[in-house]
Amino acid sequence: MRHKHPNLRKLRRCTSLEWVYDTKDNSDDVNGSMVIRVGEDVSIYPLDERAVQLQDGSLPVMSYWYGKVLEIYLNPGGQDVWLDIKWYYRKVDLEDEGVDLAASVGEHELVLSDHTSVVDMCCVEDHATILAYDEGDLAQPQIPIGTLYNRWTIDIKFSSNRQEVYMEGLNIRLPPVHAIDAIPAFSSPTIFQRYCRKCARWFNEECVASIGRQLRGQVKPRVPSTYAGINFDLEFLLLLTSPIRRGDSYGVVGNGMILVKGLALMEEAKILGRLPDGWQDTMRQTMVLIGDENVPRYHCPKCTTTVI
After folding, report:
1. How many CB atoms lie within 10 A of CB 31?
2. What is the rounded distance in angstroms from the CA atom of residue 262 to the CA atom of residue 285?
3. Cβ atoms of residues 307 and 298 within 8 Å
4. H helix and E strand count, the chain
5. Which end of the chain has the lower number of beta carbons within 10 A, N or C?
């Protein structure tokens, strides 16, 4: 690894390159290559004494550092390649800085930051697949256990003294129109949350139980007048009244697909005059995450009318 910081003004920029490296497989030397492009996510071998190699020489997935490639710099007269990297922060990185947000970050979650630095290409381990998670998109497929994902972007303010550079402040960047009322649902994926269909917002179940008004009795299925004259199976209607939950056994994304697929089937029923044959097959995967039908139900603490 080269420790001297490059003079970027003397290097040539490119949008992609093929990096050729040598690997050893037993006693045979095998030439390999890696094509890297601007905008891709990469894993980077960390300078961290806590990173302990596995038997095959690799590291556990959350021991690597991760970044997004902003620029690629090439020395035309040599083999030197440098990457301008925008860093992802892991839960442990935020904990090291004493950031409260760390408590809401999942085990395999990465938080994209505006913190950038130049990294020697020799430090890049491999490409990284980091799934984007939009908290307001109920149609998003479930994120498999052990998969890297990102839902938040942060802006970091650094300060320095004579001895060190330190993180002074942090702000979460929100899109112009946010699906959850412009308020991030600060909650760890290990904690249950409920979704309100009307105000399109997630709530921690513990908070709902403490401040929400509990429903006495069963949720009654109601069909909008636009579907008048269509006979819906009772099983289907009861399914649509199931609570939308995420976290813990419901996974990072949750079971919101029940609502999305259910509404799509209702639109088909408008044309057919009934639910299409085999609708149970369409809903089978989402029905796995229905959970306990006897879970307490509450009125939404925000809109107060919708049962969640």
Report:
1. 8
2. 12
3. yes
4. 5, 17
5. N
Of 95, 104, 87, nearest to 43 by C-alpha is 87
Distance, in Å, from the CA atom of 41 to the CA atom of 65, rounded to the nearest integer, reads: 11
Residue-wise pLDDT tens digits, 110-152 = 999 999 999 999 999 999 999 999 988 888 999 999 999 999 9
Q: What is the DSSP string of 3-33?
A: -SPP-GGGSEEESEEEEEEEEEETTEEEEEE
pLDDT tens-digit map of 241-250: 889 999 998 9
Burial class (CB in 10 A: 0-12, 13-18, 19+), 122: middle
Tokens of 113: 């930051």
Distance CA 20, CA 285 (A): 43
Q: Which residue has the tokens 């301008």?
A: 84
Scanning the chain, the segments in alpha helix (DSSP H) are: 91-96, 205-211, 234-240, 257-272, 279-287
